[in-house]
Amino acid sequence: MEETKSEVSVDPKKAKKVRMHYFGILVGLILLFSGYTSILVLQSSINIKEGLGSQMMTITYIVTFLSSFFISPLFIRVVGVKKALMLGELGYVLYVAANFYPSPAVLYIAGVLGGLSESIYWIPVGIIYVHYGMKYHRYTGRPAEQCVAEFAGLLLGLFVINQIIGNLFSFVVLHLFPPNSTATINTTIRTTDDQFLYCGANDCQDPNVTTAHIDQYVPTNPVALYV
User: Fold this and answer.
1) What's residue 101's pLDDT?
2) Transmembrane ranges (predicted)?
3) Which helix (H) or strand (E) is 163 found in, with range?
4) Theoretical Cys-Cys bridge with 60: which of 12, 73, 114, 190, CB 3.0 to 4.6 Å?
5) Exposure string over 191-222, b if 16+ CB within 10 A, otherwise e
6) What is the pLDDT of residues 67-109, one digit of tens each?
7) pLDDT at 18 over 70
8) Is the separation of the CB atoms in 120 and 72 below 8 Å?
9) pTM for this predicted structure
């Protein structure tokens, strides 16, 4: 990471501009992932029927794993870092928007799209903090390794904030908004000693036990979830 002295041109104004530009990118990252993280955390709750939410998440992670090896390097080489970053952001937005129409086909496609976005987004992010760290080194004269490490730390620190915000959204959605229906459902369930064999370590999700409870589940108000 070392540069020659001729490449260092100390300019406090330009250094400040580089720092502000980098913070602008990080703010965009926080806003993007706050929504994405909150949807991801709630996925198995808002799309509970037939385990659709869990299936969508599984597809997302499998596609992320596979495309990281076979697609991302070639894709970024072809389209470039900036376009890859923008396309990754667009993919995340579409992933969130797909939850407005939670049909199996839409959510499965969104799961694939989310996985592809995950794999192509983080490579440009890693390049960006190195790029801005080197520019900051050029305009401050500080050691390049120190500047890059500082910008990497800012990225990690501010990225953690999105997880805090996302979990706050989840808390608000689950605890502060009423469900869609206020009707009281009364159900009589006959139990036998055999059903208690499925508790604790012996739990195997006996359909006779779980179905009655799942049928009574009412998802939270969709407006609260997506706004």
Assistant:
1) 84
2) 21-46, 58-76, 83-101, 107-130, 151-177
3) helix 144-175
4) 114
5) eeeeeeeeeeeeeeeeeebeeeeeeeeebbee
6) 988 888 899 989 998 899 899 999 999 998 888 888 889 989 9
7) yes
8) yes
9) 0.68
Does any domain span residue 166? Answer: yes
| Those residues with Cβ within 8 angstroms of residue 19's Cβ, 6 or more apart along the chain or in another chain | 136
Least confident interval from 8-12, 13-17, 190-194: 190-194
| Distance from C-alpha of 158 to C-alpha of 25, rounded to nearest angstrom | 11
**Structural contact between residues 1 and 134, judged by C-beta atoms closer than 8 angstroms:** yes
Report CA-CA distances (Å) from 205 to 70, 84, 193, 210.
Answer: 37, 43, 16, 6
Q: How far is Cα 227 from Cα 223, in angstroms, rounded to an integer?
A: 6
CA–CA distance, 154 with 24 (Å, rounded to integer) = 12
Indicate whether 1 belongs to any domain: no
Q: Is 50 part of any domain? A: yes
Residue 26 lies in a domain: yes
User: Could you tell me the two tokens for 143?
Assistant: 């050691």
Q: Which domain holds residue 115?
A: 12-177
DSSP 220: B
User: What φ, ψ does residue 100 adopt, rounded to 5°?
Assistant: -70, -25
